[in-house]
Write a structure and sequence with these properties.
- The chain is of the alpha/beta class and 455 residues long.
- Helix content is 44%, strand content 11%.
- It is built from 16 helices and 10 strands.
- The chain has helices spanning 14-24, 30-34, 77-89, 106-109, 128-141, 151-158, 165-177, 191-196, 200-218, 241-262, 286-300, 320-335, 350-372, 376-381, 384-401, 448-454; strands spanning 36-37, 43-44, 67-74, 94-99, 118-123, 144-149, 184-189, 232-237, 269-274, 305-307.
- Helix 9 packs parallel to helix 10.
- The radius of gyration is 23 Å and the shape is globular.
- The mean pLDDT is 92.
Length: 455
């Protein structure tokens, strides 16, 4: 057959579709009945047409392949190593170690890890000697090690520098110079803003302003390092399925635009994981459904590595069952659902392309406002960013409270006879008063107020 089946059909314009819909509404107002206004300030139309893409010139290439990852909190090097090797045998392609103490032996932790395994190292301290040792190990063991260092993220989340602004930046500069065999050195914790209640536009703008602080500081010193190694973005993914796909795609567009101004590597690396914000301790098994769709959004959005969240992560300590289920979800998506076989899966979707363009445009506009207001650090120290996030979080909380945002088992379809699980770790935010340089950005779950009432 040489003739296309679609040649027999006349083209229908967007105007014609809208006229048909208005006729079927029988007098009801089109905008009031069918236009949905999102928290991001984007109006969602009832249909999208090829005409919606006419003004979009930006193209983006998403990954057709991705690595699944498992997060391991390390308090003992031997145990951490054992967990990692067992996870790799079960199908894990990447391991994310979170190291709390400088006394953790890196050689022991990474012993017998298969060559070319992807490793993310995140430390809760700054130490040039520790990172130098890590760099040597990466070279000797032939491991793909990504270092997730974020001194500004630590300031935003805790309210304090590790030591001081000057010392932290000096140590970071030394780390960059001593990390020639690491795949990355600087990470941007975008998930902090998402889990605190920021809109997607805010997340994108804050991520861009956040990384711009590093680029500004190092532009005359070690910026050449970023011509070969990518910036690592750690991104939390929520339940707004198509918006989250578009958010990751918009992040790549914005980064490419910023990186071109500094003449550095225009490809970033995205480590995506499900958000805590919409997870519940009520009807907690539903968390498995939430994390599955969030991982799907991450994959379709083009994340390089996807790290799942155990369904009981909110209230349980790390355990074999929760960890196994979270890894199996990713294995099913890759090996049984074949989510890694399609190149640019979201490309060409009128709806997603339109969302991507609008999120990128709004994110860029807000980023420019932040820079005009003195930059990320200046607005963080003055409390402007914290205030904006709280305002957005309040709006989202109100939507949850009036059941516009529904979390099954928490604010709708609640099991009145449910017995809450035993908490192995703190479920609600710590209220301990501590001295800080600035007000930290704090994470909050939507269902916390409801859950407190059920205790």
């Amino acid at each position: 057959m040489t003739k296309s089946l679609f040649d027999s059909f006349d083209d229908v314009s967007a105007k014609q579709w809208k006229q048909k819909i208005q006729f079927d509404l029988k007098g009801a107002d089109y905008n009031e009945a069918l236009i949905f206004k999102s928290l991001e300030g984007i109006d969602i139309k009832p249909f999208y047409h090829q005409e919606d893409l006419e003004h979009i010139s930006t193209t983006i290439s998403e990954n057709s392949s991705w690595n699944n990852s498992l997060k391991i909190e390390v308090s003992d090097a031997t145990i951490g190593n054992q967990k990692a090797r067992e996870a790799i045998k079960k199908g894990a392609e990447s391991i994310h170690f979170v190291i709390a103490k400088e006394t953790i032996d890196l050689n022991l932790l990474l012993e017998n890890i298969p060559p070319n395994t992807q490793i993310f190292i995140e430390t809760e301290f700054l130490s040039i000697s520790y990172i130098k040792e890590l760099n040597d190990i990466a070279q000797n063991l032939n491991l793909d090690i990504f270092l997730a260092t974020d001194i500004i993220g630590n300031l935003a989340s805790t309210g304090n520098w590790f030591t001081s602004l000057k010392d932290d930046h000096q140590i970071l500069q030394d780390i960059i110079k001593q990390s020639k065999h690491l795949k990355s050195t600087i990470s941007i914790d975008v998930g902090l803003y998402q889990n605190a209640g920021a809109t997607m536009v805010q997340q994108l703008a804050y991520a861009l302003a956040h990384v711009n602080e590093y680029l500004n500081h190092f532009k005359d010193i070690t910026l050449s390092s970023f011509t070969k190694t990518p910036i690592l973005f750690k991104v939390a993914v929520g339940s707004n399925y198509f918006f989250e796909i578009a958010k990751l795609r918009a992040l790549r567009i914005l980064w490419r635009s910023l990186a071109s101004e500094y003449d550095i590597l225009e490809e970033c690396y995205i480590l995506a994981y499900p958000s805590h914000r919409n997870k519940t301790i009520m009807d907690y098994n539903v968390n498995m459904l939430r994390t599955t769709t969030e991982c799907m959004s991450a994959i379709l959005g083009g994340a390089n590595t996807v790290q799942n969240l155990p369904y009981d992560d909110i209230y349980n300590l790390e355990n074999d069952f929760g960890t196994r289920i979270s890894l199996n979800q990713l294995l099913i998506l890759k090996n049984e659902s074949y989510f890694d076989l399609v190149t640019n899966p979201a490309s060409g979707s009128y709806y997603i392309e339109s969302l991507t363009d609008q999120l990128a445009e709004k994110g860029l506009s807000l980023f420019k406002n932040i820079e005009e207001g003195g930059g990320f650090l200046n607005q963080l120290k003055s409390g402007i960013l914290q205030k904006k996030i709280k305002e957005s979080a309040k709006k989202e909380q109100e939507l949850f409270d009036n059941q516009t945002i529904i979390l099954t088992g928490a604010n709708k379809y609640v099991n009145s006879e449910e017995v809450l699980p035993t908490f192995q770790k703190s479920v609600f935010p710590d209220k301990n008063v501590r001295k800080t340089l600035l007000q930290p950005i704090t994470k909050h779950r939507l269902s916390e107020i409801v859950e407190k009432k059920t205790q």
